[in-house]
Amino acid sequence: MSKDIEPHREKTLHELNLEQREIDRSIRETNIEAANAAGKATLDVLNRHRPDGKRMQKPVRAPVTE
Questions:
Q1: Which of 3, 8, 25, 62 is the 20 to 30 A CA-CA neighbour of 14?
Q2: What are the CA-CA distances from residue 47 to residues 24, 28, 62 (Å)?
Q3: DSSP structure class, residue 9
């Protein structure tokens, strides 16, 4: 028995498009995961500084004393 080996051929445009779509999908998923992680980290920092969730406001100028 002899196996016929298919000669090397270049990928078709359809195959290249499918590969590119898969790459784009994985990049998109990675970006979504990174955005969610960044949002969670930001909220964790804010909650650590002000657990009641209220915004802290710095005074615009020093109080006037006479």
A1: 3
A2: 34, 28, 27
A3: -
Distance separating alpha carbons of residues 1 and 13, to the nearest angstrom? 34
Q: Which amino acid is at 58?
A: K
pLDDT computed for residue 10 by the predictor: 92
* Non-local CB neighbours of 45 within 8 Å, separated by 6+ positions: none
**What is residue 51's DSSP assignment?**
T
Could you give the residue ranges of the DSSP H alpha helices within the chain?
Answer: 13-49
| Residue 52 DSSP code | T
Backbone region of residue 53 per phi and psi (left: phi > 0; alpha: psi in -120 to 50; beta: other values): left
Task: For 63, list phi and psi in degrees, rounded to 5.
Answer: -65, 145
